[in-house]
Amino acid sequence: MPVTKLYIDKEVEDYSNVREFSSRIDLEGEIVDDQQVIFDIIQESSDPIQKAKEVIFLTRNKGAFIKKCPGTSIYTCCGYKILHIGTFCDMDCSYCILQTYFHPPIMQYFVNHIDMMTELDRIFEEKAIHRVGTGEFTDSLIWEKWTDIASKLVTKFSKQNNSILELKSKTVNIKKLENLNHNGKTILAWSMNTPHVIKEEEKDTTPLKARLRAAQKVESWGYKLAFHFDPMVFYDNCHEEYKDVVRQIFKNVSPENVAYISIGSFRFMPDLKQIIQKRFKESTLVYGEFIHGLDNKMRYFKPLRLKMYQAIVSEIKLLAPDVLVYFCMEDDEIWEKTFGFVPDKDEGLSKMLDKRVAKLCGLNKGLLI
Ligand code: SF4
Hints:
Layout: E1 5-9, H1 16-25, E2 30-32, H2 36-44, H3 48-52, E3 55-59, E4 66-68, E5 81-83, E6 86-87, E7 92-93, H4 98-101, E8 107-110, H5 113-124, E9 130-133, H6 149-158, E10 163-169, E11 186-191, H7 195-201, E12 202-203, H8 208-220, E13 224-232, H9 238-252, E14 258-265, E15 267-268, H10 270-279, E16 290-292, E17 298-300, H11 302-319, E18 324-327, H12 332-339, H13 348-361
Parallel strand pairs: 1-2, 1-3, 3-8, 5-9, 9-10, 10-11, 11-13, 13-14, 14-18
Antiparallel strand pairs: 4-5, 6-8, 7-12, 15-17, 16-17
């Protein structure tokens, strides 16, 4: 989706990365004193979410750059940390939770990188393993068109040994990562789905084959990899198609270089339903049978979820038995019936992931608890 308007917060107009951004996007930036002006323009549009994808606002992150992933105590959580480089996305997936997350939605890119680096230095000094990713409130690699943020972070993480950086994307914007000395501390992750779901529900993203080619390329540059099957969507023949995606992954990359694979099924807060119905009229996503989960989200019935999970996990275990596979936000019964165990309540999943990345990415193993 093309960005057609650039706004710049008056507070940051003299930052060098603002000048750089403006020259690369080739748009005359409009300086604003008050962000409410942009919010109003977005809110008054007939489709505020669409409008928000056409507008970028360069500003300071006035809160924390590093945040805990908002998991819940009800479902097993992975203990991931979010590095908050910006918000929203110019691709347009029907199920995107960010459509309801920001009020209003807005593509912001935070330019106060000195603050960001200071926060990173602080966690690099801690006696703990950290898994840090930029792909929760935005797509990690959409900003590559206009910035060098990924390269900056890859280089920053290469110089320490207690944290890994995860860049998660549905793009193939990997070119700038080729000649970096990453020192094994960056994991490139792709969100995966079947060609059917990508075509029907992931507008403006890249096709599965392109994601796989990009993964193969970065593997040849020495990066470790991860894949996220989330959301898995239920439809006729989905089990076979998800298994086929797993086969395609391991035709393209070697299991030894895959740190982990996460899986989760389609779930949504009730207000996302109306947005999907309004903005994605062709989508059938929300017309299945759902139950109200303990976290207030709607999810597929447990037997449906289990069957999808068991299909995909059996294929992964067949082709890549040593790769760590885990659920994003699932309950004990699902863990038990799929993997035959439940992670310890005391950050069990988090510790499993720490151990895996410490081994694969050369982190200080003395920090493992
Ligand atoms: S790529 Fe991710 S962030 Fe972007 S629209 Fe799709 S789900 Fe949302």
